[in-house]
Design brief:
The complex is a heterodimer of chains A (348) and B (77).
Chain A: E1 3-10, E2 27-29, H1 36-43, E3 47-55, H2 57-62, H3 64-77, E4 82-85, H4 92-109, E5 112-118, H5 122-127, E6 132-136, H6 143-158, H7 166-169, H8 186-198, E7 228-233, E8 237-239, E9 255-258, E10 270-272, H9 280-284, H10 292-300, E11 306-313, H11 321-337, E12 342-346
Parallel strand pairs in A: 1-3, 1-4, 4-5, 5-6, 7-11, 7-12
Antiparallel strand pairs in A: 2-3, 8-10, 9-11
Chain B: H1 2-9, E1 13-17, H2 20-25, E2 30-33, H3 47-65, E3 73-74
The chains are: A alpha/beta (348), B alpha/beta (77).
């Protein structure tokens, strides 16, 4: 028996118009639209498109929860085994909608879901960890290739066979690592990789490094004499006893500590709990990592307006980029709320 | 963390640490090289030198805070 597939597309691929129709609410059709014909052909005897759900890109983007709920209802009515969304190429709102509805279909309807997008589509950043998505080029000129990859992946997933690594199966990795026994040790594999690199051969890393974003620099402080300045650190400097139980590595939280009545950090009042460097010198004098003593002196001398009443600190070793970013956002919100004009953050 | 504080609060954030390439990689904009990884703002051994080194870096941070930049900048002095 053929597997039942629902196709999710936007107003444009449904032939209902471009930007002027981007506000249309979700609707479903029993017919095959847009890339549906190509999918039908690619699925052959194994699966068929039983319905198409359409939603305007702006509608989805502006009413995510409502759109998700309405689309899920329409999808459920077709009793599908699988949802195929897009491909979205580099269309941002469409990529978001595809990622969101695939995530929801997996979770709420317990069915297979597949999408496709360009590597820089914002949908990938938001939903890439949840869904199976194939890499596409940045525009619809890559439709044929995207349909071939997506249909293959959808059939593969519906077969229930265990999935192999992302790069072998042809989908974007979801940040998941599986443990298995390898015939070579890590040291041997590392030497092999190094030799391949030395010889200019193609090689595949086992551990991809995260890509960091850049932002334009903030404007400078105009009047330093009246500026409120915060000191922060990822060097693991905390009040003695580590009251917030910040982990010595892979931190899950950060602490906000009242330094308004302190002029100096000493081994009696503060300590370093950081697990990633030799703490001998920081334990001897925590100011060597979080420079309260000299900042207090400069404040008294009038070199700047005021030292912010709190120090915000955590441990930076082996802390995930996602956690570090969310700590940064939380600290940023706090400093903004308290009218801080600039910050100095130290790391070890 | 530095980048997200700067972005969220909209204020300049000076990053003092020892490995400059990492600060550049993670997107810090105002960068000051520290003294050593376990004591970025200290010169253990001689108390006077220890404080002088720390003060110098703090003063440089204040300078960085008030300096207009249009790209990632390492403040070496």
């Amino acid at each position: 028996m053929k597997k039942r597939v629902v196709l999710y597309i936007n107003q444009f691929f449904a032939g209902m118009g471009g930007e002027e129709s981007a506000h249309i609410p979700p609707e479903s059709k029993n017919t095959i639209l847009g890339p549906g014909a190509a999918f039908t052909q690619a699925f052959g005897d194994e699966a068929e498109i039983v319905g198409t759900v359409i939603c305007g890109d702006s509608y989805y983007g502006e009413h995510i929860e409502k759109a998700r709920e309405e689309c899920l209802k329409l999808i459920r009515a077709f009793e599908p085994d699988c949802l195929v969304a897009g491909p979205a190429f580099n269309a941002g709102r469409y990529g978001l909608a595809c990622g969101d509805i695939c995530t929801a279909a997996q979770r709420e309807l317990n069915i297979t879901a597949v999408t496709g997008w360009y590597s820089e589509n914002p949908g990938r950043e938001l939903y890439g960890a949840n869904v199976f998505a194939v890499p596409t080029v940045d525009s619809a000129r890559g439709m044929k290739d995207a349909v071939a990859k997506m249909s293959r992946l959808a059939l593969r997933l519906m077969s229930g066979e265990p999935m192999g690594p992302a790069r072998e199966e042809g989908y974007f990795h979801r940040g998941i690592r599986k443990n298995f026994f390898h015939e070579k040790t890590g040291a041997q594999r590392a030497i092999d990789l190094a030799l391949q690199k030395f010889h200019g051969e193609a090689f595949q890393t086992e551990l991809e490094m995260p890509v960091f974003k850049k932002i334009p620099p903030a404007a400078p402080v105009k009047d330093i004499k009246s500026a409120k300045i915060a000191i922060c650190s990822s060097g693991g400097i905390v009040p003695k006893g580590n009251p917030d139980h910040i982990r010595v590595s892979s931190a899950m939280n950060w602490g906000k500590y009242d330094i308004s009545k302190l002029d100096d950090l000493t081994p009696e009042n503060y300590e370093s709990i950081h697990g990633g460097y030799d703490r001998t010198w920081a334990l001897e004098d925590p100011d060597r990592v979080l420079p309260l003593d000299e900042m207090r002196k400069l404040e008294r001398e009038g070199a700047f307006g005021k030292l912010y009443e709190y120090a915000c600190t955590t441990t930076g070793t082996a802390t995930s980029v996602a956690n570090a970013e969310s700590f940064g956002r939380e600290i940023g919100e706090l400093l903004k709320k308290d009218g801080v004009d600039a910050a100095i953050l130290t790391s070890t | 963390m530095v980048r997200e504080i700067e972005k969220t609060a909209g204020i300049p954030v000076v990053h003092i640490a020892t490995i400059v390439p990492i600060m550049l990689t993670v997107g810090s904009n105002r960068i000051i090289p520290g003294i050593a990884i376990p004591h970025p703002l200290g010169k253990p051994g001689n108390d006077e030198e220890d404080h002088a080194a720390r003060r110098k870096l703090c003063e440089r941070a204040l300078k960085a805070i008030t300096t207009k930049i249009d790209k990632q900048t390492v403040f070496k002095e």
